[in-house]
Amino acid sequence: GQNIDQPTEMTATEGAIVQINCTYQTSGFNGLFWYQQHAGEAPTFLSYNVLDGLEEKGRFSSFLSRSKGYSYLLLKELQMKDSASYLCAVKDSNYQLIWGAGTKLIIKP
Amino acid sequence: GAVVSQHPSWVICKSGTSVKIECRSLDFQATTMFWYRQFPKQSLMLMATSNEGSKATYEQGVEKDKFLINHASLTLSTLTVTSAHPEDSSFYICSASRPGSGANVLTFGAGSRLTVL
């Protein structure tokens, strides 16, 4: 079967750095996405990785290792507004998106 | 660009009634839209893929006669929950691929929270 694993919940301090990991086992790979979802709202796109390596976008970076079936989302200089769920999703060989259950990130002052 | 509008944002209905949710792409044409359902503290579950001018493709376990999808134009897809029951209470979200994004990044509507009494 296809599976995406992420930690259920993480806690970090305002101003700090946090890394949210995602491992996947899918039938084929055509890209990995990270989305942010605030409670009661729809997801918003953060990043996309299809090749190995690090993609940096402001305070957020996303890393991919296809050989390891692994990605992480790195958030720097954490702000209270970063409190949200972070969803990892992989596009499989049929270009179907497989979603992780999301990681709820709690930021403490 | 690439804005998806969803309406209503929340709705409360009585058991046995039907509810229609609209999803519009405001500044682009979407030949394909996706309907998701999300229960509290769970991930997004794809219900169906809506194709303009043709029948929707439903995921396994989703009743097509209960969740009617119509995609009559390039900017509008509707989801009708027929004979709603309390177990249908959920957060329903539509999405469409952002054109020219290369990776077919999904843009989501704001979601519709359905509560069936």
Short structural description:
The complex is a heterodimer of chains A (109) and B (117). Chain A has no helices and eleven strands.
What would the keywords be for this entry?
heterodimer, A: 109 residues, mainly beta, six-stranded mixed sheet, five-stranded antiparallel sheet, 0% helix, B: 117 residues, seven-stranded mixed sheet, four-stranded antiparallel sheet, 51% strand, globular
What does this structure look like?
The complex is a heterodimer of chains A (109) and B (117). Chain A is an all-beta fold. Helix content of chain A is 0%, strand content 57%. Chain A is built from no helices and eleven strands. Chain A has strands at residues 3-5, 9-13, 18-25, 32-37, 44-49, 53-57, 60-65, 70-75, 84-91, 97-99, 103-108. In chain A, the strands form two sheets. In chain A, strands 2, 4, 5, 9, 10 and 11 form a six-stranded mixed β-sheet that branches. A five-stranded antiparallel β-sheet of chain A has the order 1-3-8-7-6, with no helix packed on it. In chain A, strand 9 (84-91) and strand 10 (97-99) form a beta hairpin. The relative contact order of chain A is 0.35. The model of chain A has no long low-confidence stretch (mean pLDDT 95). With 117 residues, chain B is mostly beta strands. Chain B has strands at 4-7, 10-13, 19-25, 32-38, 45-51, 57-58, 67-73, 76-81, 90-97, 106-108, 112-116. In chain B, strand 4 and strand 5 form a beta hairpin. The radius of gyration of chain B is 13 Å and the shape is globular. Chain B starts with a strand and ends with a strand. The mean pLDDT of chain B is 90. The A-B interface holds A 31, 33, 40-45, 48, 50, 87, 95-97, 99-102 and B 6, 42-46, 91, 93, 95, 98, 103-111, 113.
Task: Give the tally of β-strands of chain A.
Answer: 11
Strand content of chain A: over 45%
Give the count of helical stretches of chain A. 0
Tally of DSSP helical segments of chain B: 0
Distance between the termini of chain B: 37 Å
Secondary-structure-derived class of chain B: mainly beta
Global outline of chain A: globular
Termini gap of chain A: 40 Å
SSE pattern of chain A, N- to C-terminal: EEEEEEEEEEE
What integer is the average pLDDT of chain B?
Answer: 90
Cα-atom radius of gyration of chain B: 13 Å
The average pLDDT score of chain A comes to 95
Low-confidence stretches of chain A: none
Q: What quaternary form is this? A: heterodimer
